[in-house]
């Protein structure tokens, strides 16, 4: 019996049930559509807050790493196998190129699509 009141209190805090101030205390469900709207709004706000925190952390990390000097070889050679992560890796290599980039990809359709996207 004691545990159910904790659960009901949690549901009341989430505005999913309403409590009547009686002895014993009685609870009633709120309208399901209203409850789902509240839950959705709460979760969206939580996700927005998490996104803001992640963006702030990313900015802090960029600032921390901005002074790091990496040793780079004069020329790099990458082999990229076609797969799920290849597009992301190719985009990273192209955007990171400083001077020149030799790019070869066998399937013409994919290379044309990448050329247009990048």
Described by the principal axes of the CA atoms, the overall outline is: elongated
Rg is: 27 Å
Average per-residue pLDDT, rounded, comes to: 81
Output the strand order for the largest sheet.
1-2
**Major sheet description:** 2 strands, antiparallel
Give helix and strand order, one letter per element, not per position: HEEHHH
In terms of DSSP E residues, the strand content is 5-15%
Describe what you observe in this structure:
With 118 residues, the chain is mostly helical. The protein has four helices and two strands. It has a two-stranded antiparallel ribbon with strand order 1-2. β1 (17-20) and β2 form a beta hairpin. The model has no long low-confidence stretch (mean pLDDT 81).
Note the topology.
Blueprint: H1 2-13, E1 17-20, E2 26-29, H2 32-65, H3 86-96, H4 108-117
Antiparallel strand pairs: 1-2
List keywords for this structure.
two-stranded antiparallel sheet, 2 strands, 118 residues, mainly alpha, elongated
Summary?
By secondary structure, the chain is mainly α. The protein contains four helices and two strands.
